[in-house]
Amino acid sequence: MTDLGLVAWPPAPIRTERLVLRQSEARDRAGFVALFASPEVGTYVGGARSREEVEDTMPEVPGRRPGVFVIDLDGQMIGMVTLDPRAAERRGHIRPDGGETELGYLILPEAWGRGYAVEACAAALDWFAGAVPGAPVVLSTQTANERSMRVAEKLGFTEVDRFEEYGAEQWFGVWPSGPASA
Ligand SMILES: CC(C)(COP(=O)(O)OP(=O)(O)OC[C@H]1O[C@@H](n2cnc3c(N)ncnc32)[C@H](O)[C@@H]1OP(=O)(O)O)[C@@H](O)C(=O)NCCC(=O)NCCS
């Protein structure tokens, strides 16, 4: 069982100064399609798929699984924050048996540059730390993904390793730093 497997899901919506983190709903479908069909969003995370392909394969209510938060700004989806188990076959682990909880974040390009990613991720991490005290969260991102690297730094992740994966250099970090994650 992963750390997230110990948590009742979904939690009550999480409110920040400007955002709400909540479970996905059918009305978010267009936002999910826009997110996964965006070339800018896909640049460092596997590339964009065609809008047609994304439309055809997107479930009626996308993202309905534990660990997926829709980022809602004034009632509109602007992105998502994920807390998922890190697959054992991936490179980058802090536990010998893997299964660490990994943070991910995707924001629609029109909402970049306003601090929403850090605000949303900080709230998700805060919630997770309360739900599973002492459990570390890991994160990997391409070193070339400068915006993402800045988000990781602002959230307080510290570097554990760098390695090649998917044909690019990856930065692998842990939160919080210190004895709980050692
Ligand atoms: C990674 C990603 C989420 C970062 O988005 P972002 O908008 O750059 O990050 P933030 O929301 O934290 O915004 C930070 C910027 O907002 C600015 N900002 C403006 N108003 C702000 C406010 N009120 N509060 C905080 N920051 C604010 C900051 O100065 C900062 O600018 P800078 O990066 O030029 O220094 C986004 O680029 C993205 O979705 N990329 C595609 C998906 C991806 O690669 N995800 C990473 C996978 S691991």
Automatic annotation (TrEMBL):
What region holds the N-acetyltransferase domain? 19-181
What the entry lists under InterPro entries is as follows: Acyl_CoA_acyltransferase (IPR016181), GNAT_dom (IPR000182), N-acetyltransferase (IPR051531)
Q: Which organism is it from?
A: Kitasatospora camelliae
Q: List the molecular function annotations (GO) for this entry.
A: acyltransferase activity, transferring groups other than amino-acyl groups
Mark the transmembrane ranges. none
User: What name does this protein carry?
Assistant: GNAT family N-acetyltransferase
Give a single Pfam family match: Acetyltransf_3
SUPFAM superfamilies xref list: Acyl-CoA N-acyltransferases (Nat)
